Amino acid sequence: SRMFLVGLSGGIASGKSTVVAVLRELGCAVIDADLIARQVVQPHSKAHQQILRYFGTEILLENGEINREALGDIIFSQPEKRRLLNSITHPEILKEMLKQILKYFVLGYRYVILDIPLLFETRGLTKFMRYTVLVYCDPPAQRARLMRRNGLDEAAAEARISSQIPLEEKLQWATDVIDNSGDRESTRRQVLRLHARLEDSLDFLWARLAAGAAVAGLGGLVFLFLRHLIS
């Protein structure tokens, strides 16, 4: 059984959710890192308790859940707090992602798409991806979309966008680009082409690790994957 990983990323308001919707419609296995990040900090989780210990109860909502906006404001302005939060949540996110990858592996999927918003910012991850797909949108269209979607003025939208690595820069790292600057139909056609390429691909990322012995290989795979991601 062969399997490889595909990393999918974009920028804020670049239209990644449109691309994911088409991929899911085509029957692809998509793992949503953002959704997992929300799940691992639910009340009673290990990460929730650690976050409370370090950030205090003022970042809680009435229902005991973490106020993502309040926490976001803290880590946006304080890099050392951001590093602390990452050190609490990343190992938990990774464990859950691995569990889901292994589930799809066992179900016989040929590849799994990992939807990771900060894929290119976390450079350590890209080496595990056979393909890295960037959902691109030209800057004026990106700004207009963000203003419309979040009801922001131009300056606020610009600040959000400039807090990320520019999409132009990410272009050089991606193996595949979906240009979402045009209409929905054009984006859809590009996703269908990508899907055909993935279906045809026989490249097997873990070949040198697993050497055909799936079960024996998985232990080493998990270890390497964890070591790279957590370091």
What report would you give on this structure?
This protein has 231 residues and is of the alpha/beta class. It has two domains: 1-29 and 110-200, Rossmann fold; 38-108, no CATH class. Helices cover 57% and strands 10% of the residues. The protein has helices at 16-25, 33-39, 46-55, 68-77, 79-106, 123-126, 139-150, 154-162, 167-170, 184-200, 207-210, 214-230, and strands at 4-9, 30-32, 111-115, 131-136, 176-179. The chain has a five-stranded parallel sheet with strand order 2-3-1-4-5, sandwiched between helices. Helix 4 (68-77) crosses helix 5 and helix 5 packs antiparallel against helix 12 (214-230). The model is unreliable at 204-209 and 211-217 (pLDDT under 50).
Features:
globular; alpha/beta; five-stranded parallel beta sheet; Rossmann fold; 12 helices
Give a brief rundown of this model.
The chain has 231 residues and is α/β, with parallel strands linked by helices. It has helices at 16-25, 33-39, 46-55, 68-77, 79-106, 123-126, 139-150, 154-162, 167-170, 184-200, 207-210, 214-230, and strands at 4-9, 30-32, 111-115, 131-136, 176-179. The chain has a 5-stranded parallel sheet with strand order 2-3-1-4-5, with helices on both faces.
Computed CA radius of gyration, to the nearest angstrom: 19 Å
The succession of helices and strands, N to C, reads EHEHHHHEHEHHHEHHH
Tell me the number of helical segments per DSSP (H or I, 4 or more residues long): 12
Biggest sheet layout? 5 strands, parallel
Look at the structure and give the mean pLDDT.
87
- Helix/strand structural class: alpha/beta
Please state the second-level CATH architecture of the largest domain: 3-Layer(aba) Sandwich
Protein name: Dephospho-CoA kinase domain-containing protein
Family: Belongs to the CoaE family.
GO molecular function, one term: ATP binding
GO cellular component, one term: cytoplasm
